[in-house]
From TrEMBL:
The active site is at residue 448. It comes from Grimontia celer. It is an enzyme of class 1 (oxidoreductase). Disulfide bonds join 43-48. NAD(+) binds at residues 179-186, 269. Binds 1 FAD per subunit. GO terms for molecular function: dihydrolipoyl dehydrogenase (NADH) activity; flavin adenine dinucleotide binding; NAD(P)H dehydrogenase (quinone) activity. Keywords: FAD, Flavoprotein, NAD, Nucleotide-binding, Oxidoreductase. Its cofactor is FAD. This is Dihydrolipoyl dehydrogenase. Residues 7-326 form the FAD/NAD(P)-binding domain.
Length: 483
């Protein structure tokens, strides 16, 4: 068995691991990166990018279907060629992965260790049965994987996760989606719009990542206008028969229903990949899920020489967060013991459904937990149903809630469902990171007519409720209501 002595060992070759490796290399050349599977990121291979390719195809169909609302009538039946759809998804997916692998190829061969690492102690790793690594510092960046209830394994290859969808050669006839979170909503709606018969089931009433009950109720209603979604489903039986899955469930009226589908898509959450690292051989403190706890500003665990980043940390499982955490963890592992707090940006997340869902800063749940419901904060509201530019584009569905602190007038966060929510969220995230007040945000320029004017309307509503500004302007005097 070969033995290596290194300054920093990074476990994992995804977004966080590659970022950690590059940051550590800025301080020392003696760094290795360990990967047991294919290099590349969850985002490029089976996450953000291929899902957006599928969404783009679904949006193309939806635009054609909406055209008669503008007086434009496409001729003939809309034909969806599932093989062509999936061929483009896979071709473009592979292109994105290729870009990532080009960066991996630039890593010196001697720095890349192939295999799966396990801890022997706080500073020792063994990779498969071929390499022992004595590392002064270690970064865990092993990512996460989908999870589902164990009894579902009886469904065999009729049970799929998002990874499997992007390997399809053709679109199936029917899919039952379990989990109306980010993945379930994006894939479920896209498949529905591409002609697949889809029903979406959840547990506990949760829709997406939303925590504001009013915004969540709106989202539930909006999705149900397009496809079946029961966020608190009562599924009585799910069994495989041949190449089909038979599901027996109670509908929203309590009536027993039966359905037959080609696949069951499990979008029921992800699990950090730390359970096979033998972390019990270290002195790291673990949370209730068995994940090492870490300082969110330094990514340092309770063992000073071990850092953790990305989805493996179970903090904020998003690509931009994984990249930030990887850079912070790698920088601190490289410069150890000179530990420094890294830049942590304001939280921003999006669901690329239609209408889109987005959240910025503190969530409604976090604000109420911190401030209670005693009037220490207020909520500004706007509906996009009457908003000028949204109606022009026939995209007038959605609601935005912005939260502000009484007394200081500081902008705390936002939750929304609406057109172009991904862009509105960026606008609000920049304001949140700069710790702006509602009044300061209202001093910023707003063009006309744009969807962003809906943000201004919500901010005006909030400012009036905070008693820090003029009375709310209910109608635009220049070009009518909703601007």
């Amino acid at each position: 068995m070969k033995t290596l002595n290194v300054d920093v060992a990074v476990i994992g070759g995804g977004t966080a691991g590659l970022g950690a490796y590059r940051s550590a290399k800025a301080h020392t050349d003696n760094v290795v990166i360990i990967e047991g599977g294919p290099y590349g990121t969850t985002c490029a291979r089976v996450g953000c990018m291929p899902s957006k390719l599928l969404i783009a195809a679904a949006e193309a169909v939806h635009h054609i279907e909406k055209a008669p609302g503008f007086g434009v009538h496409p001729q003939g039946e809309i034909k969806i060629n599932g093989r062509e759809v999936m061929d483009r998804v896979k071709r473009e997916r592979d292109r994105f992965v290729g870009f990532v692998l080009e960066g991996v190829d630039e890593i010196p061969a001697e720095d890349k260790i192939a295999g799966y690492a396990k801890f022997i102690d706080d500073n020792t790793l063994i990779v498969d049965d071929h390499t022992r690594i004595e590392a002064k510092r270690i970064v865990i960046a092993t990512g996460s994987r989908p999870t589902w209830p164990a009894p579902w394994n009886d469904l065999g290859d009729r049970l799929i996760v998002n990874d499997d969808v992007f390997d399809w050669d053709d679109l199936p006839g029917s899919v039952a989606v379990f989990g109306p979170g980010v993945i379930g909503l994006e894939l479920g709606q896209s498949l529905h719009r591409l002609g697949v018969k889809v029903k979406v089931f959840g547990v506990g009433g949760q829709v997406g990542p939303l925590t504001d009950p009013t915004v969540m109720a709106y989202a539930d209603k909006a999705f149900n206008e397009e496809f079946y979604l029961d966020a608190d489903a009562k599924v009585e039986e799910m069994v495989r028969e041949g190449e089909k899955v038979h599901i027996r469930y109670l509908d929203k009226q309590g009536q027993e229903q039966r359905m037959e589908v080609d696949y069951v898509l499990a979008a029921t959450g992800r699990r950090p990949n730390v359970d096979k690292l033998d972390i019990e051989n270290t002195g790291m403190e673990l949370d209730a899920r068995g994940v090492p706890t870490a300082d969110p500003y330094t990514m340092q665990t309770s063992v000073a020489s071990i850092f953790i980043s990305g989805d493996a940390s179970n903090q904020i499982p998003l690509l931009h967060e994984a990249a930030d955490q990887g850079r912070i963890a790698g920088d601190n592992a490289g410069r150890f013991p000179d530990i420094r707090a890294g830049l942590r940006r304001s939280k921003i997340s999006a669901v690329f459904s239609d209408p889109q869902i987005a959240m910025v800063g503190e969530t409604y749940k976090e604000i109420t937990a911190r401030l209670g419901t005693c009037g220490c904060f207020e909520t500004g509201v706007v509906s996009f149903e009457g908003q000028g530019r949204s109606r022009v584009m026939l995209r007038n569905k959605g609601v935005l809630h912005v939260y502000g602190e009484q007394g200081t007038g500081r902008f705390l966060g936002a939750e929304m469902m609406g057109p172009n929510a991904e862009h509105l969220a960026h606008l609000l995230a920049w304001a949140h990171q700069n710790q702006m007040t509602i009044s300061q945000m209202l001093d910023m320029p707003f063009y006309h007519p744009v969807i962003e004017e809906g943000v201004r309307t919500a901010l005006r509503d909030l400012n009036a409720k905070l008693h820090l500004g003029p009375e709310m302007i209910k109608h635009c005097l220049d070009c009518g209501p909703g601007c």
